[in-house]
Predict the 3D structure of the following.
Amino acid sequence: MANEKAPNPPNVYQCILKVCADLAQTGIGKDRRNEQQNYKFRGIDDVYNALAPVLAKHGLVILPRIVSREVAERVTQKGGTLFYVTLCAEFDFVSAHDGSQVTVRTYGEAMDSGDKATNKAMSACYKYAALMTFAIPTEGDHDTENATPEPTVEKAPAGFDDWFADVLATADTGLEPLKAAWTASKKGYREYVQKYRAAEWDRAKKRAIAIDQTKPQPV
């Protein structure tokens, strides 16, 4: 109808929210590895590849601006020169629909023996501005069926902790006293041990056997 009011174009915050929603489904995995320091990370190319189609889809533009740059020269153990660059950068997130924008500031550091330190620091600034603004997970949440509830442990019966501590201490006297303490205990206590504390019980039995092996044998 002619009198219907056109919907307002999405502002920058709505655009950011839509980008967040899309990236939450896919995430960006830490598939690259730093071989020297042995840790995994998400590279700048991974961020670009994931962001580019989503930004275009939702009409969000990211415009960079370098606020400050510091450079220091350091000498390596082998006598070479290493350039250490620290950048402060701002990124204007702009809605292409209505021109609204918000600015994000971040910092980046990088080292290089050639002319790439500034480029690396710029990439770090962009990467972390994007990761933090869009809260990009390392893995996506594609289907709730993939989620496994956190395992729970049944509450121990009343008096269990004191009893179990006493029984475990019995292991220091040998296997037979340990078995006797176990047999004389409540059924509910034994069932709880078998269900939730079996590893501790097995260690107690092994300790009791070791104690018996150190005892003098009858002549």
Observations:
- The beta strands are 32-34, 39-41, 60-75, 81-95, 101-112.
- Helices lie at 12-26, 44-58, 117-133, 160-170, 175-183, 187-196, 198-214.
